[in-house]
Amino acid sequence: APGYDVARIQEKWQAVWDELQPFNTSDPDDPRPRKYVLDMFPYPSGDLHMGHAEAYALGDVIARYWRQQGFNVLHPIGWDSFGLPAENAAIKRGIDPRPWTYDNIAQQRKSMKQYAASFDWDRVLHTSDPEYYKWNQWLFLKLYEKGLAYRKASWVNWCPKDQTVLANEQVVDGACERCGTIVVKKKLTQWYFKITDYADRLLDDLNQLEGFWPSKVLAMQRNWIGRSMGADVDFAIEGRAEPVSVFTTRPDTLFGATFMVVAPDSELAAELVAGADAEVAAQFAAYLADVQKNTEIERQDATREKTGVFLGRYAVNPVNGERVPIWSADYVLADYGHGAIMAVPAHDQRDLDFARTFGLPVRVVVDTNAPITGAIPVVVDGEVPDELPPLDPAGTGIALVGDGRMINSGPLDGLSKTNAIARMIEILEAGGTGRAAKNFRLRDWLISRQRYWGTPIPIIHAENGDLIPLSEDQLPLELPSAEGLDLSPRGTSPLGGDEEWMSVTNPIDGSPARRDPDTMDTFVDSSWYFLRFLDPHDDARAFDPAEAERWAPVDQYVGGVTHAILHLLYARFITKVLYDLGYVTFTEPFSALLNQGMVLMDGSAMSKSKGNLVRLSDQIDEHGVDAIRLTMAFAGPPEDDIDWADVAPHASAKFLARAWRLAHDVTSAPEVEWKSGDAALRRVTHQFLADAPGLIEAFKFNVVVARIMELVNATRKAIDSGPGGADAAVREAAETVALGLSLFSPYTAEEMWETLGYPPSVALYGWRKADPTLLVAESVTCVVQVDGKLRDRLDVSPRISPEALEAQVRALPSVARTVGDRAIISVIVRAPRLVNVVTAH
Ligand code: ANZ
């Protein structure tokens, strides 16, 4: 046999695949059931790197697996090609972002093909093409029509030196991350998408994804949306006609409210100060100037020393008529709740710190030493003390945040916290001075950017300030050439400098009008791209709803955990909007999610500056594509990081050569009768055929690779010191190795398949069913969860059907007990290993 020549076989099979188009999905009459496997699309920031190599190798295992299982698998790729790196490169080199972007795309596309990712190359899209961003504009107009796109002035972080808006993450210790200049706040009018209208649905629908998305991502999304249940309480203000509402999660503590605090940068603070004397006004102005140097993150840091100013005004507590002073302090945020709070220093640590700093009264209203069923007991130095600590937060400086019985609270006395909250809400509602309320941490999505390389906003500004949306037939509103434009960041949009582009006539009355010079956040582009892949060349609509019905939602999404919050949240939001508009029939875009880990080097992230960058192209030259892909899959569970210093691509290459040689040592013909083969080797083969699918579906790719290695060893032994290369079992095993390897190392698999006497492509040849008579009976442990918590275990057959397994679990007394009288919303069955019963709360 000739040698295993990686470079030669790579070139050979790329040509065959180009001809054969094995992964094309354009046939509308394809009878196979469908699956949509999507990898997060890349940003064209240069050539592909090791991170891409990992992500696309793992996503491809899944796509290739489902094809082998008889599915018509849609596995598309495109480029997220608008955005800042292209713009920065253009500024640095003094060129248009286009050639930089499209050259990089061409390079990545070439590398992706060499990398043998099983993409449907007929569905490629680039978000910076007018054919694509036209539909961003369409989407914008749809949101605008529905009142979900609006403009609002808001405070942004502003670097006076770089003349640019900074994200919170770019402000370090109050200074610009890049140049160290003290950052100030600036008020800018920006475009927002009203994602907060969808906050409840975005939160509640996460329950449907339980068991299918990493629990860490679900937790991060829940925390980001951050729903708090509580009450709005109205405090009358002396010298003001209208009361001021505060949001509290602890209306039970209202009798302990001893002062009120308003955010210094709120309109309310400005108004209250206007009614105070000049000395207070001056103090407040100085304080506000100080506060505006800090970021929101710093303001929320609970350990910071408390600062504030007394505003010289008083509020009245609605339940006891008590007069409480109104302060302004920066630990209260202007854009959460009502930007004002009732301070209960005895039971809230921040309020207590503040009260102790400024000598304000502290009144205990919950006896946290009083026993409450189910409450966590008071523990001091690891023990429940005989004598309980005194209720003295003012002295100890420690707020009493636990549960207990209400005291000093009139009608609430004796109640537990939960009951007191409910009772207080009733009292407030009856008196018309408050009501049940909820709040979200989630803020509306700021989508406008003062940047060039993005989607222009399809709005015209009339002279009188009216906003006039473009009509659909005026789309795309094309981004003009960057030639002659100053792209450097100045906080105003580069497009504003293109006078010819900016000046338009008002379509209503013919008067002069202006375009909107901002462009859209690139997260808008990626919020719906998975739908465009279904119908990428349609120039009459964003996508065909019939195609969406056929393919979507995405069955398996694969990508980095860096997108755990924003991208996924925005895509979920836009999907719900499109559902409400009747364009899609589902409400969640990604039915299952796999987050792959990162590729590290010597324990840290790779970067040019650290000098630990491993170039993918060098690795491919040295070891070949198949060996790199196999190494990525073999390194460990896909969710874990891979340290490239700890893995052995040369060993993968050696193993692949060893596997490949098996095909050459098979001397029987494809028509051989399997049954005549060596029984011991057949058992190894069939056990692998039986186990691999479940392992792949559980993302245990590394285990499958290990099992292929075992099979290769067993086959080699059978050839060299067993029944020999003519035995039918040797052929069967070698073919099974090729089928298994086609998930990980497609070039080697194709080469083996051809050597074994079959036409290409092995990728389209189905998986073989294991012969049950060749398998040893065994049982596996199935984990039984209720709402994600372990409740029981069951010994079941590894081949139990999901239906049978669900029935067994539902019949378990342990499950019935835990579920109690709650409704079961869904039962997630991952036969044979896991069942999770999800209940309503
Ligand atoms: C009185 C109280 C007593 C509170 C107590 C807590 C404990 P989450 O859970 O984050 O929603 N709060 C309300 N608006 C605020 C704002 N704009 N800036 C800073 N803090 C604000 O927190 C809600 C609680 O945070 C509210 O409940 C309020 O303090 C405070 F023993 O009201 B609480």
Automatic annotation (TrEMBL):
Domain Aminoacyl-tRNA synthetase class Ia: 443-643
UniProt keywords, alphabetically: Aminoacyl-tRNA synthetase, ATP-binding, Cytoplasm, Ligase, Nucleotide-binding, Protein biosynthesis
A GO term for molecular function: aminoacyl-tRNA deacylase activity
Keyword Nucleotide-binding in annotation: yes
Limits of the Leucyl-tRNA synthetase editing domain: 222-428
Domain Methionyl/Leucyl tRNA synthetase intervals: 40-180
Highest taxon of source: Bacteria
GO CC annotation, single: cytosol
Annotated compartments: Cytoplasm
The family this protein is said to belong to: Belongs to the class-I aminoacyl-tRNA synthetase family.
Name listed for the protein in its UniProt record: Leucine--tRNA ligase
Organism from which the protein derives: Terrimesophilobacter mesophilus
Encoding gene per record: leuS
